[in-house]
Amino acid sequence: MTTAPAEADERVAHVGLARRLLIRPELGAVVGLVAVFTFFASQSPVFRSPAGIANWLDPAATLGIMAVAVALLMIGGEFDLSAGVLTGTSGLILVTLATRFGFDVWSAMLVGLIVALAVGFANGMIVTRTKLPSFIVTLGTFLMLQGVNLGVTKAITGTVQVSGLRRAEGYDGAAAIFAGTIHIGGTSFRVAILWWILVTAVATWVLMRTRPGNWIFAVGGNEQAARAVGVPAARTKIALFMTTAFAAWLVGSILALRYTSVQANIGIGQEFIYIIAAVIGGCLLTGGYGSAIGAAFGAVIFGMADKGIVFLGWDADWFTFFLGAMLLLATLANRLVRRYAEEVKH
Amino acid sequence: MILETRGIGKTFGSVLALRDVSMGVAAGQVTCVLGDNGAGKSTLIKILSGVHQHDAGTYLVDGREVRFSSPRDALDRGIATVYQDLAMIPLMSVWRNFFLGSEPRKGLAFDVAKARRVAREELRAMGIDIRDVDQPVGTLSGGERQSVAIARAVHFGARVLILDEPTSALGVKQAGVVLRYIARARDRGLGVVFITHNPHHAYPVGDRFLLLKRGTTLGQYAKQDITPQELTALMAGGAELEELAHELRRE
């Protein structure tokens, strides 16, 4: 092409910075984030202190890793209800192998990773091959994993938890990397926060700046059309299910190494929290639209509300009320923003 | 002729979808395929574009017999099809749609700056006036979407463009816009197969006309051999129209 760089069309001159920012999918989450932070920070000095921030960033981090992966999957047009319980499965495998079967922590983690990826692969294969709604398919794997987690744990330990990971070989090294703390200016932050930032950065880059990112939007937006122009739709979706599984393994391992024991029923009910965080972050339930960083912001809102309510001395039962209100407000805001974005100006 | 069929046919089970159809398209020319619903237009273009395989007759590209196993095969030989439903993702921007499935790369990354620039340039080269390549395709009008799809096929090296009813869902003005891009693609040396059931759209832009009816051909005509009136009459089945007029006449 020898054409000189095309100058901007005179009719787009009025598209100012404000509009460009407004049509980002994560706008609703950013506004919510600022509002929630302002509310709690004005009421509670602890909340806005460095120690308080470290405190509410921690639940935001473990939830955020999952929410970002789930957001990618939702942009790709699918759900994964098995993601929450899979964090439990990964943690249980890690602790059980390391404490009962003589594995060192690293090999136990590797086995956990292989199993998690296999579950993700199976979810993806079933969904892409059968064309069944992923909501149903992963509801199936969710229930099956829930049964396996409880059944196998009871069969091996006679109780509903496995513990004693601290004594396993290689624990100190793995715990430092996945469950340690780092000190910044006298405040200790959980290292999970770094994993969360890394996952969010990588996910955002993949989504916005790589070919697979383009394919994720396309398979979620219109799978048939995507396939018609040569997008490997099935492979993209299977990779997304495996990404969610990977995130579940990461979070499961972080929590197992942190607490050194795992309850067999851990993670149940979390799958909806991930989806809610992704939706607050701007993901459409119908797929094809959303943002990874938005889901990370959605997770921060959760973390702030979760801990902020405690800091204010309120009853923690109010948390779910707050959750529901946030979800409704965010989806309403996102819908308005999207309408505005799609408005044609002639 | 870039693309030619000789006595081509296709059956689905006991249904004869297409019988003994011969047609061709040359570089820089437009061949219009006309026919009513069920005439076999879609079966013909699905054979041409590699979706279906013919089971009678021969299909030649550049004078050599071919048998495509997939649309990708046909695309590799420079035969691109723009379907009625367009294969575009409404929520994605124009430039993301333009390069979907063939994104330019820079190292590991998708070369976004290049994609934006090339999409804008290619659309301009086709004379397509898009306000902003960042806007979602869903905000474009039907004619604009058709035009983007055509520009995309041209950019990716199509020598033959198969257009499946590109004007059928459009208003008069929008259809005119699309016809102009068809002419533009023809002037750039592409062979165009233009499927339509509207002789008024076909006649101004076409060089030859293939008429299909009930799965078989009513003949292929060069433009100088047929008038718009004859084309319309053939297309609608002149006798049938007269019969209909008779039937609808007030007693």
UniProtKB/TrEMBL annotation, chain A:
Record's keyword annotation contains Cell membrane: yes
Gene Ontology terms for molecular function: transmembrane transporter activity
Record-linked InterPro entries: ABC_transp_permease
Keywords: Cell inner membrane, Cell membrane, Membrane, Sugar transport, Transmembrane, Transmembrane helix, Transport
TM region positions: 21-41, 53-75, 81-98, 105-126, 238-260, 272-298, 318-337
UniProt keyword annotation of Transport present: yes
Domain of life: Bacteria
Entry's localization field: Cell membrane
Pfam families for the chain: BPD_transp_2
Function: Part of the binding-protein-dependent transport system for D-xylose. Probably responsible for the translocation of the substrate across the membrane.
Protein name per its UniProtKB record: Xylose transport system permease protein XylH
Organism: Nonomuraea terrae
UniProt lineage: Bacteria, Bacillati, Actinomycetota, Actinomycetes, Streptosporangiales
From TrEMBL, chain B:
Keyword ATP-binding: yes
GO molecular function annotations of the record: ATP binding; ATP hydrolysis activity
Name of this chain's protein: Sugar ABC transporter ATP-binding protein
Residue ranges of every copy of the ABC transporter domain listed in the record: 3-239
Keywords assigned by UniProt, alphabetized: ATP-binding, Nucleotide-binding
Origin species: Nonomuraea terrae
InterPro entries: AAA+_ATPase, ABC_carbohydrate_import_ATPase, ABC_transporter-like_ATP-bd, P-loop_NTPase
Pfam family, one: ABC_tran
Matching Gene3D superfamilies: P-loop containing nucleotide triphosphate hydrolases
Keyword Chaperone: no
Alphabetical list of PROSITE patterns matching this protein: ABC_TRANSPORTER_2
Coiled-coil zones: none
